[in-house]
Amino acid sequence: MMEDTIAAIATPLGEGGIAIVRVSGREAVDIVEKVFRPVPGGKRLKDRGGYTLGLGWIVDRKGNHVDEVLVTVMRGPKSYTAEDVVEINCHGGVLAAIRCLETVLENGARLAEPGEFTKRAFLNGRLDISQAEAVIDIIRAKTEKGMSMAVKQLEGMLRKRVAELEDRLVGLNTMVEASIDFPEEVGDLDEEIARQQAQEILRELEGLLRAGERNRVYQWGVKVVIAGKPNVGKSSLLNALLRKKKAIVTDIPGTTRDIVEDYINVKGIPVNIMDTAGIRETGDLVERIGVERSEEVISEADIILAVLDAGAGISEEDERVAKMVAGRRVIVLVNKEDLEEKRVTLEEVERLFPGQTVVRGSVKEEIGLEELESAIEEAVLAGKVEAGDEDIMVNLRQEEAFRRVKTSMEGFLAGLETNTSLDCLAVDIGEALEALGEITGKTLKEDVIERIFRDYCIGK
Ligand SMILES: Nc1nc2c(c(=O)[nH]1)N(C=O)[C@@H](CNc1ccc(C(=O)N[C@@H](CCC(=O)O)C(=O)O)cc1)CN2
Ligand SMILES: Nc1nc2c(ncn2[C@@H]2O[C@H](COP(=O)(O)OP(=O)(O)OP(=O)(O)O)[C@@H](O)[C@H]2O)c(=O)[nH]1
Ligand SMILES: [Mg+2]
What we know:
Elements: E1 6-9, E2 18-24, H1 28-35, E3 36-38, E4 52-59, E5 65-74, E6 85-91, H2 94-106, E7 110-111, H3 116-123, H4 129-140, H5 144-155, H6 157-181, H7 183-186, H8 191-220, E8 222-227, H9 234-242, E9 260-266, E10 269-275, H10 285-300, E11 303-309, H11 316-325, E12 330-335, H12 346-352, E13 357-360, H13 369-381, H14 396-417, H15 422-440, H16 446-454
Helix pairs in contact: 4-5, 6-8, 6-15, 8-14, 14-15
Magnesium ion binds near residues 235, 247, 256 and 275.
């Protein structure tokens, strides 16, 4: 149990219906008791049962009413942190929340660090670290899909899978240790069984790593940059995908100069989409800076949407764009297909962007947009979709640990082949178990734990 009692505002600072000041720790009830005055006939906090609400006033040292509030008591271990928690529900104004918080801090609570409530839930064993990490993923989720995967993680999806792996490893370890400790009784290690077990563990690890890599895009999203020469319809495309008139569209080449960006949801993938200045040689200083910026963001894109103008035909400027994006993941949109006179052939597009996905359409007539979104999804998931992969999330920290488990298991298998000593095999398994423990937080070092929670919001 932690020493200090911590407090923070758990809701965003701004005008709203209600704001919550959360207090957690051994003295949570005592501290709030000092500043809470129940309405006549209402119970004192000490006498309240867990998970009940009481109406009253928060009063400061001078006896002034700070705000009218509802107070919830949740007694540990039945609370978010597994400690005594008191939540003060005050009116949703910035000052109401700050004044209630100050009153609690003046009476012995300390301001909580970012993520400290969740950290306590972890340190007190209510959540493992993969579930604690899921809490922040839920808060930051940008699409339904990202949200639903984070919720599964909070429910303990990865925790369960790691526990199963751990069971298998412990089983394998028992086999090896028994042969070391009681060679007469159990005899030599049955290498065939050990090999099979290790291979099964490896297969499971590979599945988790694959699913993790694929599913991370639903959490983090991708950066898609619209590129092309002036006047092909890049800004029109941005607006069409956003379903709002965000960027200025005119028939004057060189309209866009700044990068215009926003987020769209493409089949559950959060896409940061950017419109750029049309690429061309220009004497206009402002436009030239715009073109430089385009080149910069193009170089950082995950996917480039290269737009061509079916009516204008291929020009030197298109060649320049093609060179710029050669070797990258590109989706080509041949735009303005609604025009009578078409001057762009598929052969030319194929020559310019060999092997890339081509979509023909018209932003003006809203033709080809669906196909474009599917092409984005395909490009993002290219090579990553595998039957049997599930909605499991594996973040980079967890992935790194899984890779170490994998390396140890490969070492174990190699050891079996070369008849290494049993002691060496036991070391491999020990290392695998240690790395696995980092995923749930069993064997995490203090500084890593600190780093994980530092990214959280105050009050979480
Ligand atoms: N007002 C409020 N709303 C909130 C939270 C909160 O802490 N306060 N939460 C978080 O920020 C989330 C809810 N998460 C929670 C998870 C577990 C427990 C809890 O008390 N668990 C105990 C007892 C469960 C029971 O009643 O049996 C336990 O697991 O032992 C509370 C909140 C979202 N909404
Ligand atoms: N006929 C036709 N015109 C289009 C289509 N898409 C865009 N346009 C027109 O093409 C012109 C240029 O569109 P923009 O979206 O401003 O082009 P841009 O590529 O952003 O141009 P810059 O910002 O100058 O690089 C506008 O007059 C649009 O209305 C289309 O599918 N068909
Ligand atoms: Mg534009």
